[in-house]
Amino acid sequence: MCSLLLRAHGLCMPSTFYFSRLVDRSLLSKSPTLAKIVHAQLFKAGLLPNTFWGNRCLQLYFKSGAVVDAFQSFDDISDKSIMSWNICLKGLLRNGYLNHALDLFDEMPQRDVVTWNTVISGFASCGFSEIAIRVFLDMVIRPTEFTFSILASLVTCVRHGEQIHGNVICSGVSLSSLVVWNSLMDMYRRLGVFDYALSVFLAMEDRDVISWNSLILCCSDSGYKEAALDWFRLMRELGNRPDEYILSTVLSICSGLRDLCKGKQAIALCVKMGFLSNTVVSGAAIDMFSKCNRLEDSVKLFRHSEKWDSVLCNTMVASYSWHGLGEDALRLFILAVRQSVKPDKFALSSVLSSMNAAMLDHGAQLHSLAIKLGFDRDTVVATAVMEMYFKTGVVDSAMRVFATTVDKDLFFWNTVIMGLARNSREAESLAVFRRLLMHRGLKPDRVSFMGSLLACCYANFVNEGIKIFSSMQNSHGVDPENEHYACIVELLCRAGMISEARDIAERIPFEPSSHIWEPILCASLDLENMSLAETVAERMLGCEPKSAFPYLVLIKLYEMTLRWEKSVRIRYAMDKQKLKCAQGWSKIGLKSSVYSFEADQLQIHGGHDTCAALELLSWDSDDQKIHWSEEHFY
């Protein structure tokens, strides 16, 4: 660069070759000062009257962001070519001067296809898709393949997509033009119209790996995951070589199907083709093993990775969280941060979602980290933060997040409704639910109604609960499912309306689950209604034969009514079927560790020292020592 400037300053005779190299290097620097120096040297050498060098100066100024100097340079060009106008138009659009670009577009003495494509792509890249489509409709010359590929990326409804598709056919675009037809396939994939995407694929004369990728991804997005794997199999049979992107898509499909066998085959193909070193592919493989309940294989694959990056670490953190291993997820997250792996919002939300009540301090620190990284305004992260606070019982902190979050999606609202209901803030939960009903852009779904019904159930708001349950299908078009029926039945049973609850359970239009009959069975226990209890228990066992709950209720009822023989028979039936009661467990956080305690299995950290201390401190009323042993604790 220095030698070029010395030559330009007249220390040796400059030539157009040197000025060309000087401009090329100046374009890379994007410096307004350097652009002015080069402009001055071109003027001194007498090259500026030339249109070519005037255009080069325009490129320099627009590249460096000096729009005012670029305008002055544009006015200095005496003989402006169509390229001069196009360069100025493109520079204005790239620098955000949209109104000036439209004025310049109207002043142009002539326009070629580059002009129209520049305006269309410029407004599209700035987010003004409607203006870009309007410019296309005003286009008076024949569009090119680049024009159609831009328009295909802008379409947001099927009707406009069909119009673009029709224009492509009427313009006589060759069926071997991969750019246009691949763009149309991707357009229909985004619009969720699989049939149209398939018709475009079948009509194409030539297909590349992008064509196959679009078809397979479109099948997967449309819910035809098995068909997507069939198309992948056909792609390989026809001799097409897959790339890393399509193999990661196939692994994601196997993950969604929970198909471990096909997932292993895809991983074997990745190993054979040398793609497993790609972090996107290995991340998809880790996720596949995790979703197929093979977390140990996910851990092995992660540990054998050559290097850690954000993709691998975030996927592994999400896998731990998905399996409910919050401590492992947090431990890996901290280790990744210490090794300078930048966390993204998805990893942060995964760790926050896996927090339990014993990890409140860690959750608050992660919330602070989210604020520091600027993720706290993201809806996904804010939802995870609220969920963490609701789990740990810090409702006020969760509600502060609710109040400060601007973009609230339906999942965000549902988290608040459900969290308030589960933390004994039923009235507030119903108030938030009513605010959701008045929201113009969102409609409540089954989770929203489940949260409101749960609030009514916990607060014994019978009339309100019946009203909400009746409005689900009548006013909002949401069909009640098992959990909704179970909630309204429990609400009625708590209010002593056993016959009404039983009528609802018997009129369910589908086979009810055993959870719907549980509150009726418990209510019959309180009433000591033997015949009703036996009938309901029989219905529950028909739904779920391996459930121990109806047996336990009947045992208690028989013992309350002194029917010992029947109680013994029920216990014998439980032992014969090897049914066990679900054991409860709890967790406690001590410093940096979290300890789990199961029922009938007390475990104490440092058990030997604890037993020794109890030996010294324990005695009975007769001053006789009680001999403690570790058997009391293990």
TrEMBL record:
GO terms for molecular function: RNA binding. Coiled coil: none annotated. PROSITE patterns: PPR (PS51375). Keywords: Repeat. InterPro entries: PPR_At4g14850-like_plant, PPR_rpt, TPR-like_helical_dom_sf. PPR repeats lie at residues 81-115, 177-207, 208-242, 309-343, 409-444. One of its GO terms (biological process) is RNA modification. This is Chlororespiratory reduction 4.
